[in-house]
Design a protein that fits this description.
Length: 176
């Protein structure tokens, strides 16, 4: 499958500046980014969430991070967020490979919430509906096209603090 026809129409209709990058069939965003020689911090992972009222939204975070559901719930005002099932993804994105949804939720009737960390990156790379091809563009161009809400703070979980080394003396070893 190629890039979603909906996305292709948007990009060409708006005369957006973008380029294609060879993709990967890996189900993991980090592996896809690595195979394409794209830093994981520039590779967008699109995550579809269902809410308590039966609606859906899309959250977009860097591939190197994990989504913080509480941060997205706070930004969106939508409680009870959960990951959408594969069956729901197939229904919501009929023209996309499973798991390769483009970060343009509006094309599919979904509000999109984007991690602001992408603003600091030179390129914004994402799956365009296909595992075969990735799309790369400037984040500013994506932001103007996607009609997405860029969060007031990060939507990814903060990395755990590194383990502290013990300052207690080590026991003497019995062997030399």
């Amino acid at each position: 499958m190629a890039v979603s026809l909906r996305l292709r129409r948007l990009l060409t209709g708006e005369y957006a500046s973008y380029r294609f990058v060879a993709g990967s069939t890996s189900p993991r965003a980090r592996a896809i980014a690595a195979a394409a020689c794209v830093p994981g911090s520039q590779f967008a992972k699109s995550i579809v969430l269902g809410d308590a009222a039966g609606g859906y939204l899309m959250a977009v975070v860097p591939a190197t991070t994990r989504l913080d559901l509480a941060a997205v719930a706070a930004a969106s005002g939508r409680p009870g967020l959960r990951l959408a099932s594969e069956q729901e993804l197939g229904r919501l994105f009929p023209d996309c490979d499973l798991g390769a949804m483009p970060p343009f939720g509006e094309l599919y009737g979904l509000h999109t919430y984007v991690d602001p960390c992408f603003r600091d990156r030179p390129d914004f790379v994402f799956q365009g509906g296909s595992h075969d091809e990735l799309v790369a563009m400037r984040f500013a161009d994506y932001e103007s096209l996607a009609r997405a809400v860029v969060g007031p703070s990060c939507f990814h979980a903060k990395a755990p603090a590194p383990a502290r080394r013990s300052t207690a003396p080590r026991p003497a070893s019995a062997t030399v």
